[in-house]
Every structure is written in structure tokens, then in C-alpha cells.
Request: fold
Amino acid sequence: MHSLTGKRAIVTGAGSGIGRASALRFAAEGALVCAVDRERSTVGETVAAIVAAGGRAIAVAGDAGAEEDVAAYFAAALEAFGGIDVVFANAGIAGTYAPLAEQSAGDWLAVLRVNLIGAFLAIKHATPVMTKLGRGSIICTASVAGQRANAGPSPYSASKAGVISLVQTSANALAGTGIRVNAICPGLIETGMTQPMFDSARARGKADRIGQLNPLRRAGQPDEVAAMAVFLASDDASYVNGQAIAVDGGLSSTHPFVPSQRGATKRE
Ligand SMILES: NC(=O)c1ccc[n+]([C@@H]2O[C@H](COP(=O)([O-])OP(=O)(O)OC[C@H]3O[C@@H](n4cnc5c(N)ncnc54)[C@H](O)[C@@H]3O)[C@@H](O)[C@H]2O)c1
Reply:
């Protein structure tokens, strides 16, 4: 018996990075998986990998920030599996990297639509299904960028701070239903979103500088975030609710510091 045996799960952003790793891991733990992504080909590859490994999954192409698409992926999961026990609202975009004064309201809306409203829509559509069951686990991907500055552009950080608030307010709005709502706050993870930064550091021979601001002194891998998603999806997390849990190598536990000065202090 695996930790997600019998669970029926939706994972958005399942075509790449954290979502793909989570869809694979959910299936390996026994879940039936509805994998959703705006990219039809990549989400198809995720499902093919699950099926090749002996799991069961369906692929749905859709926009996590558009309500008609959210309704469609819920309908597809319900039709295929007869119910939904777990929703991992993970799809997200980084958005603009323009300086603050050059950002437009449209730049902000684009990021908030996918990262924050997409998570809200997932919770909204999960609520009636899970309320009927009397249980359910909803997981949203926030970020350490939602906790404080300097882990992403302003609109991205604001969207992720919104996701942290959303899981707190939703857990309380759904009091008495048996539905748990939690967020994961990843630190720096090597995925499609961050690949250009990793590639650039490697091309400059500076790969060893990546992830040096956290006490583990390395970046994370998608599977390390997927492990937390599996835990939150499982009954092992039956009393974990309304939380935003960092998976960041300890990054959010620290104040900013300059490593060379810290060494100098030690020698004094
Ligand atoms: N990589 C990191 O360092 C990091 C850190 C903190 C949080 N996150 C968050 O993790 C989540 C997953 O990102 P990732 O790092 O795996 O990046 P990724 O780019 O590898 O994967 C994101 C996936 O989401 C899909 N997607 C984007 N917009 C979508 C939409 N509107 N509808 C449906 N699918 C959509 C993309 O096609 C892609 O497959 C995001 O919410 C991101 O903000 C990532």
C-alpha cells in the first residue's frame, strides 16, 4: 500500500518542473492523476511517462487562469475517476522582469491571473466536489518570494503572497467541510522557469555559486518539492491545514549575510 493509493488527484502545471515531478510521484504513490497544462505536448509526455511506469493518468490541455478551462479539467477528472480527493494548483509564471517603474497594470494582471486567480479557481471548483465527500486536500504552490523581497519580481512576489493568504483564508472559509488547504513555498528549484539562470551560471563557469544563500548551499530539484506535495496530499497530513510550508534548503530561515564577512567574524 502506497501513501496515495485510492486517491484521485489533479495536478496543474504538470508539463514541466515541479508539476511534472509531482504528477509522476503522485502516480508512483498509487494516485490516479489528471495532469493539466497549457502545453498539450508536454502534459502528454508526463502522462505517457506515468502510463509507461504502470500508473493511470489522463492529460488535459487548458489555461489554469481561465474559469471555463478550470471547469473543463474538473469535469474531465470527475468523468475519468468518479471523484477528486486532491488538487495541486501548481501552474505558475514568472511574469515581467522590467524595473518596477516600467511595469504596467497589464503586466501585473497577467501574473495575478495565472498564479493567484488560477489557485482561487482551483479551490472554488474543488469545494463542492470535496464537500460532498467530506474530505479533500488542496495544495497550492506559493514561493519564498511570497514571504519577503528579492526572490522574484514585484508582481510575482505579490501573487505568491496572495497565494499564502488564499490558503489561510480558504482553510478557514471551508471550516467544517473536512477539506484541508495548504501551500508549499519552494526556494530556488531547477525547473523550466529557472533554467535560463542555471544555464547562464554554468556557461560562465559559476554553477557553484547557485543556491549559496541557503544553509544547504545548493539549489533544489523538483522531486524534493514533489515529496512535500505527496505528504500534504496524503492522510499522513490529516491535521496539517492552512499552512505555507517552505521547501527551500533553509533560505527563509536566514537574514541576509555576506559569506566572506561571516568567515572573517569567525576568525576574530
Ligand atoms: N522553480 C522555482 O525556483 C520556483 C520557486 C518557487 C515557486 N515556484 C513555483 O512553482 C510552480 C511550478 O513552476 P516550475 O518552477 O515547475 O516552472 P516550469 O516552468 O518548469 O513549470 C510550470 C508549468 O506550468 C505551466 N503553465 C504556466 N502557465 C499556465 C497556465 N496558465 N495554465 C496551465 N499551465 C500553465 C507551464 O506550461 C509549465 O509546464 C509555479 O507556481 C512557480 O511559480 C517555482
The chain has one domain: 8-267. The first helix runs from residue 17 to 28. Residues 264-268 have pLDDT under 50 and may be disordered.
